[in-house]
Structure formats: structure tokens, C-alpha cells
Backbone:
């Protein structure tokens, strides 16, 4: 006779999700009980019982209570089988998603990962070697670091940012950093102002509030924009921007 199995195998994950209906089918066979008879005993329609056996319907806690009255397995036994199945479905789905993400998005983050690993941050960046067998784990570490379900978040968030704020001018991710180097950017933010002829007329700070808690008393960029609109000349005085230094990628 089948008994409730409480053996747990540590460190092994099933390559497929096993629906508790498969276990129920074995129990029905062991007790020589038909699906129709079971449905009558637990007051559930034959269709629902059949869908559970075929893996098309879950074993709810209510159903688990009913089954525990018919078979020598506890309510928790059936509930845990269902929970394990749902966990495996999620795990297998996440594994497939990680593999796809590693192929489509991870290459864009190679230098970022190396820099984060070199900084020694305690944010789950282990500094694994950049090789195919580690890509899934590296992808997962970066997702956790950026607190995002997908590495596409950076790009998608930029698009959403532009839509929400009605940004109609070019707005891009300088992935190779060639543009930043060409213009001589040194920190973030490091603004550049162009006139109507697309000529660079000012490179400097937005305002003089250099710390988050500071209140600006001079709005440098706004004032210069207004001067351009009024046809006035912008001062040659250099007022540099202040911010975190740009982390340059190697090889660019």
C-alpha cells in the first residue's frame, strides 16, 4: 500500500514539473478506485477529478482536505505536492527565461559586470569568469543588482521616461561611450547645449546645487537657454558640472 512519502532529496531538481494528478492516479490504482467513485466519495464532479488526474486542474486545499479523508495521506501531503509542482513550473520557466535573456541582453553588460566585480560591492556580484557556462548566473546577479526582472529594463525604462515626459529630441543610450568621449564628458550629469543650427554653444552645469540637499541659487543652463532664444551671447566663463565621474569601459 502507498504511504505518505516524506523523503527529501537535497540538491536535486526535477527536469520537469510533476503534477500532483500523477500521484493521484497512482493512488487510485493502488486502492482500486475509479475516478467516478472518487468523485462521489468527495463530492466533486467527475470532470474535475479527471482534469486533476490529467494535470489540467490543481489540487486545492479544499480538495486536499477531502482526499485526506479517503487516503492515508495528510492534507499537507497533497498541498505540498501542488506547491512543489507550481514551484517547479516557475523554476523551469525562469531557467528558460534566463537563458534567453543571457543570449539577447547580457552581451551589452559585459563591461558593466566586470566593473561592478572590480569595485567589490556586496550586492551579489560574485565576479564569475565571463564564459558561456556562467552566463545564466551572471544574468541573475545583474538582475538582482539592478532590482529588475529583466536586463531590458534599462532600455525600456528610458523609452518610458521619454514617453511620460514628451521628449521629442534625440535621446539615446551611449552604449560604446564614444559620443561621451567625443564631446569630453567627464561626469554625470554633464550637459551640453546646442543652438538651432546644432552647434555646441555651452558645456557646463545645470545649476549650482551640487548636492541633493542643496537649493539652487543660480540656474546656469536655464539662463543660457533663454539667452539663446533671445539671440543673446553666452558668457565664455566655464562653469563645470559636478557629479560622479564616468566609469569608462575598457577597449573603447
Residues:
Amino acid at each position: 500500500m502507498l504511504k505518505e512519502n516524506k523523503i527529501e532529496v537535497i540538491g536535486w531538481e526535477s527536469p520537469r514539473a510533476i503534477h500532483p494528478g500523477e500521484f493521484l492516479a497512482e493512488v487510485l490504482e493502488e486502492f482500486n478506485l475509479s475516478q467516478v467513485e472518487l468523485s462521489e466519495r468527495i463530492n466533486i464532479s467527475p470532470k474535475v477529478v479527471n482534469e486533476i488526474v490529467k494535470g489540467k486542474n490543481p489540487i486545492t486545499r479544499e480538495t486536499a482536505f477531502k482526499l485526506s479523508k479517503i487516503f492515508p495521506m495528510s492534507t499537507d501531503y497533497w498541498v505540498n505536492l501542488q506547491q512543489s509542482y507550481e514551484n517547479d513550473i516557475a523554476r523551469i520557466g525562469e531557467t528558460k527565461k534566463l537563458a534567453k535573456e543571457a543570449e539577447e541582453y547580457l552581451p551589452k553588460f559585459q563591461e558593466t559586470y566586470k566593473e561592478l566585480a572590480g569595485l567589490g560591492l556586496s550586492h551579489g556580484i560574485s565576479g564569475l569568469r565571463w564564459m558561456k557556462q556562467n552566463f545564466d548566473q551572471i544574468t541573475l546577479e545583474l538582475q538582482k543588482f539592478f532590482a529588475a526582472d529583466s536586463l531590458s529594463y534599462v532600455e525600456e525604462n528610458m523609452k518610458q521616461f521619454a514617453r511620460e515626459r514628451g521628449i521629442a529630441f534625440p535621446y539615446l543610450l551611449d552604449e560604446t561611450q564614444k559620443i561621451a568621449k567625443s564631446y569630453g564628458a567627464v561626469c554625470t550629469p554633464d550637459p551640453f547645449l546646442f543652438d538651432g543650427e546644432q552647434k555646441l554653444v555651452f558645456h557646463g552645469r545645470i545649476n549650482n546645487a551640487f548636492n541633493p540637499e542643496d537649493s539652487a541659487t543660480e540656474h546656469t543652463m536655464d539662463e543660457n537657454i533663454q539667452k539663446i532664444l533671445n539671440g543673446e551671447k553666452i558668457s565664455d566663463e566655464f562653469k563645470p558640472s559636478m557629479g560622479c565621474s564616468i566609469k569608462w569601459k575598457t577597449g573603447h
In short: Residues 75-104 form the longest helix (30 residues). The chain has ten helices and four strands. Confidence is low (pLDDT under 50) at residues 6-10. Residues 174-245 form a domain with the Glutaredoxin fold (CATH 3.40.30.10).
